[in-house]
Amino acid sequence: MSFVSELVCSRCGRKYLPTEKPVMCASRDLGRLDVVYEYEELKEFLRRESIAKRPWTGGLWRYWELMPASREFGAPLGEGLTPLFCARRLNEAIGLKRMRLKDETRNPTGSFKDRSMSVGTAKAVEMNADTVVIASSGNAASSLAAYSASLGLRCYAFVPENVSTGKVAQLLAYGARLLRVKAVEEGVDPTVQLMLRAVEAFGWYPCPSFGPFNPYQVEGPKTIVYEVVEQLGWRFPDAMLVPTGSGCLLTGIWRGIKDLIELELVDGEPPRLIAVQPEGNQPLVRAVRTGLSFEEIVPEKSPSSIASGLLDPYPWDGDAAMEGIKRTGGTGVAVSDQEIMESVKLLASKAGVFAEPSGAVGVAAAKRLRDEGTFDESDELVVLVTGSGLKEVERLAPEVGKVPLILPEIDLLRPHVMT
Ligand SMILES: Cc1ncc(COP(=O)(O)O)c(C=O)c1O
Ligand SMILES: [Zn+2]
User: Fold this and answer.
1) pTM score, whole prediction
2) Dihedral sign for Cα atoms in the order 394, 209, 255, 233
3) C-beta of residue 241 within 8 angstroms of C-beta of residue 340
4) Protein residues within 5 Å, CB atom, of ion ligand 2
5) Domain spans of the chain, in order of start
């Protein structure tokens, strides 16, 4: 059973019926086929009480009526339903009282991308695809590989040359056919280039976490906002800080907010959406801060940052992400690698959450905005911590200290005892 009424191209407005099973707009205009649901029908029975009665299990299929794929085709890995909590010692360090972390490192493969790939692969099975392909900096690929392994799909993953060892290990263990792709042209993502060529040549099902190439997976991350609202007792927070690369996560969050408003499940102002990018790759933040339109965005020529998951030179879903930022009175923040590494350490040492640099940028932005006075201590922020530090141990280990090697003697321990 599905409550999808149609899909509408975000660029040319062309409409598709769900039975046509479209993936990309036939006009080849890089539009995203935004999924439209039968809101009037859903409003009749999808109420706070009926949702709240459901068990907090079964992954994002808890919200199956607002998904574009059938849960019977989904993998049983149990993504989402992640904790939302106040980390008191972290809040004290930053000077905020009501900041909460949405800990997406707890997902099956260690990043929020499991939400996207859960839906993307369920749709692949529904469409009878046997081979899926992805272009990714690593997290979305690992996630697609895991979901493909569970469902018996063949998975091809194209990743950048310098992908982290943790992500490679995951990908190979899950059984993906993995290829690192060399960059040839400034501002062009070679992994995306190859993915599109492979789709054309072999007819594989594209499942990157970019809306223009797969509209179904965008619907996964919107469950983050459904969960946040439920966890807060059916209220929106004041702001949400969102690590941003392609803008697909931010697009999902914005779509989730619109669903909740449309279904009259929450009242009150929506949260201010804040896109966070690294200084070394900030095409979307720059556009937001300088008042450029989405069409005026130029790809970053040579993206560079320790936040390796946020290096998309072009924000494929920037149109919807920017609409969300504008409509909620949000903004964009670019943080330096030094601020990012400081946040990785703060998150681990003050909150007990080990995040990879890309996953920690929201904390860096919260700190910056607090220091600048944009937020005061009573503002209720939700920071998405999107990826686990275990994925980048080789990059993080040298940053967090050296390990002494000693004999088992008490006098040799004494100099190391904390005072
Ligand atoms: C850990 C992490 N956080 C955030 C993002 C950004 O998501 P998006 O590309 O949808 O903006 C990514 C993307 O790869 C990621 O790996
Ligand atoms: Zn179109």
Assistant:
1) 0.97
2) negative
3) no
4) 9, 11-12, 14, 25, 27, 29, 31
5) 84-108+217-399
| 359 ligand 1 Cβ < 6 A | yes
| Secondary structure (3-state) at 283 | helix
Q: Which residue has the tokens 């090697």?
A: 405
**3-state DSSP percent of the chain in helix, strand and coil, to 5:** 45, 15, 40
| DSSP 3-state of 96 | coil
Q: Mention the CATH class of domain 84-108+217-399.
A: alpha beta
Cα distance between residue 277 and residue 362, in whole Å: 9
160 ligand 1 Cβ < 6 A: no
The H or E element spanning position 368 is helix 357-372
CA distance 205 to 120: 10
Task: Report which residue type is found at 17.
Answer: L
Q: Would you give the distance in Å from CA 330 to the centre of its chain?
A: 18
The answer to whether 61 and 114 are in contact (CB under 8 A) is no
**Structural contact between residues 103 and 85, judged by C-beta atoms closer than 8 angstroms:** yes
Two structure tokens written together for 13: 């407005």
The one-letter code for the residue type at 345 is K
- Residue nearest atom 15 in ligand 1 by C-alpha distance: 309
Cβ contacts of residue 239 below 8 Å, gap of 6+?
Answer: 271, 272, 273, 274, 330, 375, 379, 380, 381, 382
pLDDT in tens, the chain (419 residues): 899 999 999 999 999 999 999 999 999 999 999 999 999 999 999 999 999 999 999 999 999 999 999 999 999 999 999 999 999 999 999 999 999 999 999 999 999 999 999 999 999 999 999 999 999 989 999 999 999 999 999 999 999 998 989 899 999 999 999 999 999 988 889 999 999 999 999 999 999 999 999 999 999 999 999 999 999 999 999 999 999 999 999 999 999 999 999 999 998 999 999 999 999 999 999 999 999 999 999 999 999 999 999 999 999 999 999 999 999 999 999 999 999 999 999 999 999 999 999 999 999 999 999 999 999 999 999 999 999 999 999 999 999 989 999 999 999 999 999 98
Cβ atoms of 362 and 85 within 8 Å: the answer is: no
Q: Are 257 and 226 in contact (CB under 8 A)?
A: no
CA distance 151 to 79: 15
CA-139 nearest atom, ligand 1: 16
